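Please, is this right?
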Amino acid sequence: MPISYRFGLASAALAAALVTTATMAQAEQPIAPKVLVVTMFGGEAKPWLEGRKFDTKLKVPGLSKEYPEVACDATGLCVMTTAMGYANAASSVSAVIYSGLFDLRQSYILIAGIAGVDPSDGTLGSAHWARFAVDAGLRHEIDPRQIPADWPDGVVALGAQKPGEKPKWGSGTEVYKLNEKLAEKALALTSSVELADSDKAKAYRAAYKSSPGNAAPAVSICDTLSTDTYWHGTKTAESMGKWVSLLTDGAGNYCTTQMEDNASLTALQRGADAGLLQFDRIALLRTASNFDREPDGKTAIESLSADSGGFGPATANAYRVGSKFADTVINEWAEWQKTVAAK
């Protein structure tokens, strides 16, 4: 056997041993973040990654090839990115939960990303903590051109006969109620955060006739609507509002709409059921990058394709508001570790 070949085999064996040792060490001593931040794409993760010093980056099997690492700093903050949409969100969150690299049993989990917003509840750059996350995809839908004349739309709950009837069956993932006390605590902590805005956003929101749509961004509590379909327009928005009300028995009022949260929450609920995390330590924050419907004088397609100027403020504010919450949890960990919504 040539010397060079034997040397190569020895090197390969040594490398394998080192990898195995490192993996075992990680498995024996998993990272226990005080706060795990879940972002959905690079634009949401960027302010976190640039605003903090992350000295640990772990590649996690099962994460998206585009975002293969979880970044952690010395204070107890970790940030992950799922990639967009239901399939990516559920798969990536599950990969982290079951990786063995993290101990999430006492961690607070902050989902922080951008969204569309109902102008009757928010505006470009506004930040909204959620109580309910409602799935808008698990339902029957008939094209409006084929519905009975007396129907308001073609949306029919699973197993129902007409719009407005409660579903007769489902998947069990249609509605998640988050810890309202934690949302209220998060609002109290962050309501005075200085929010980013832009001249373009100010000019665009002026087309909406009333507040808060045409006002400066603010922080509030409302609810969020999840679906893989990036829908837009007044007619669909009105239907979505009815849907949220139907599934929450009138308790829910969606203000933000996004493409991942019920999927992420399903993975997290299963992790909680397995004793790997606490579901009541999940906070859900969405900031408005665009309106979910057109203003008077514009068509839905004009509104959908418009550059509203909201993306920059929304990504900045998801970080500003989210980091205020995260820093409070980390800095007051002795209390927050023991009790949800401490103090």
